[in-house]
Structures are given as structure tokens and as C-alpha cells.
Description:
Helix content is 79%, strand content 2%. It has 16 helices and 2 strands. Helix 1 runs antiparallel to helix 8 (182-210) and helix 14 crosses helix 15 (405-411). The protein has a two-stranded antiparallel ribbon.
Amino acid sequence: MANLEKGSKKLLNAWAFYDWANSVYTLTIASSIFPIFYSALFLTEIKTVNAFGFDFKSTALITFVTAFTFMVVAFTSPLLSGIADYVGNKKNFMKFFCYIGGAGCIGLYWFSLDRIYLSLLFYFMGLIGYWGSLVFYNSYLPDIAFPEQQDRISAKGFSMGYIGSVLLLIINLAMVMSQDTGEEKMQMMRYSFMTVGLWWIIFSQYSFYILPKGVSNGHKVTKDVVFNGFKELNLVWKQLKKDKRLKRYLRAFFVFSMAVQTIMLVAVYFGEEEIAWGSDSEKTTGLIVSILVIQLVAIIGAILTSRASEKFGNINTLIVVNFIWMSLCFYAYFMITPLQFYMAAAFVGLVMGGIQSLARSTYSKFLPDTDDTTSFFSFFDVAEKIGIVFGMFMFAIIDQITGSMRNSIVFLVVFFLVGIILLFKVPKKAISN
């Protein structure tokens, strides 16, 4: 495919379409059906599993594994982005992680407590595939869109992701609810994992066909360039020290992002364990309906946040959105009934897509004039992943020790409060030290 001009509608739409392809992972696997499936594997009230020589609370184990995966992503993404920058082929790396993730989703069909290590490996593959591909996907944004286009196309990507993922979830929900017995419902859930992997791989082909390969320079990978990514991160860090606005924004992003991503990764586990559902069937339906509410409202939320940023500025909008998130953590601590959970889901949807798309486009707009966008977005992604590792480990430790996810969720208030304070310190215009 011939390279399209930067800012062209076809190129922008092809980039945003990858959200349509990969967002089914975050909805079905990370947020809805897999957490319900995982919980249903435990037949007793005491949900523990023996793994790696320890007895884990079920939710704590999956949280620890998730945190470990993000730690791997944080370490490997600089290596891979450095190589991608050197050889000028970020698209191949994006493809690699896409296919690893898709294969992991398909492998979840065989997830069971009897094969816990293989099962966790498939879970690990799906998670690392999704987040690994985002390193390269996000780095395309300043390459394909001009600064004045980035807020809207970033929001459009998230909106397309919500629509596509909701469509597949409705299909998966129909599959599950069409069955009468628990065993048959579990089998349909296994099939839904396979549909996610196939959807992700198949629909990503359009983006791969249109997106440019990268800035080709004819270089080949040698052992001397393997650690080039860390060298580039060091160069990025030196440039950040000279840019007060970007440096302060990254500090704020690191703090509030760890809280947002942690909540999004554990929300359904929280709803499954802490909310008083009437029966297992009502629980399954209620949780999936809640996720659908989140996704549908999130489309509106992403658009409204984009418009608000145009009128009030990115930083001011992020401050308000973070305040809403902090309030939701307080509210979640006292939630008991399904109705209360539905209300929380609606507000989460309103701010979920908005904070993600705006955080990404704000960073993109704050970048200095450079062609080395992959290294800057690698730094951004490493900061995000390290934050998630810290947030997830803290959440899991509190959950494991206290036996309640409520204590973990209210602890996240601290992160949002600090994030708000740091956002107030971000200069409105670029300032060099």
C-alpha cells in the first residue's frame, strides 16, 4: 500500500480502526466474561488456589499475575521500540504482539484450575499482546495526525473500540444466555474467548494494510542495538528535564493512570465478590449489563471530554475528570446493591474513555518537535506500565491481607488526589528549565 499523506482521512481512520480490532480484548477478557468465568471455576465460598507454592485468594492471584505481566511489558517495550526505531519497522512489532495476544485469547478456551500454569500462560499472552501492541500503536499518533487533529482522532479510536467491543460482547452474551445449565454457559464462555482472538487478528489486517511501515533506513538488527531502546529512553529523559511542562505532566499521568488502570482491571472482580446479587444467573447477567452500560456511556464520555478539552483546555479537563474518579472510589467503598453498582458503572463509563483518550492526546501535543516519536511514546508507556505494576501490587497485597477488595479500592483515592495536585502544577504553555 502506498504511503498516504499525514493527516489524510483514510490514514487516520485506518489508525483508529485498530481500536475496533483490539478493544474486544479489554471488554470480554479483561473486563467482563473472563472475570465471571474465572470466579465460576471456584465452587466453594472460600475462593483460594494453590500456585507457585502459595495459597492465594483467587482475586489476589489474578491481580499479581496481571501486575507481573505489566512489569514484563515495561521492561521489554524499550528494547523492542529501540530496535523498531533502528530498523524503521514498528508495524512488524505491532503485528507480532497482536498475534501473540490473539493466540493467548484463543488459548483461554482451555483455561482450568487443573492446568493452572498453562492457563495463566495463555492469560499472560493475551495481556502482554494487547499492551505490547499499544506501545507501537500509540507511537503512530503524532506520525499520522497533526496536533490539531490528535484529540479528535484519539477519541474516535476509543469510540470505535467501544462500539466494536460492545457488538462482540452482545453476541457473546447471547451465546452464554442461550444455555440453561451452568456447565453449558461455561462452555459458551470458552467459545467467546476464541471469538475475541479471531476478531482481534482478522480486523487488525485493515490497519496493518494502510499504516506505513515506519521510517525505513536499511539498518539490520545486531546485538549492538538490542539495548538501543534504553539508550533512547535516557536521551528522552534528558530532554524531559529541559521541558518543565512535559516533565510535570508525566508525573501527574504516572500517578492518576496507575489508579485508573487498576480500577478498570479489577472492576468486575470487585462487582462479582462485593455486590449482593440474588443468584449466580442474576450475577452473570448483571455484571455483563454493567459492562455494556460502561461501554455505551464511554462513547459519549470520550466525545464530551474531547469537546471540553477544546473549550477549557486539556489540563483543566483532566483535573475535573480525576476529581470524578476520586469520588467514585469513595462511593464504591459503600456499594452493596446491584442498583448502586449500575449507577457507579454509568459514571465510570462517562470518565473512562475520556481520561484515556485525553491523556494520550495531551502527551502527544506536549511533545517537542521530533521524528523520534516511538521513543517518546515508549517512555510514556513505560511510565504507565510501572504505575500499573505498583497500583496492582498494592491492590493485591491489601486484598490478600485484609480479605476485602473494598479496602483496596478506597486506597486508590490517594493516587487520584496526588494526581490532581500534580496536574495543577503543569504549566499551560511549554517552559524550558
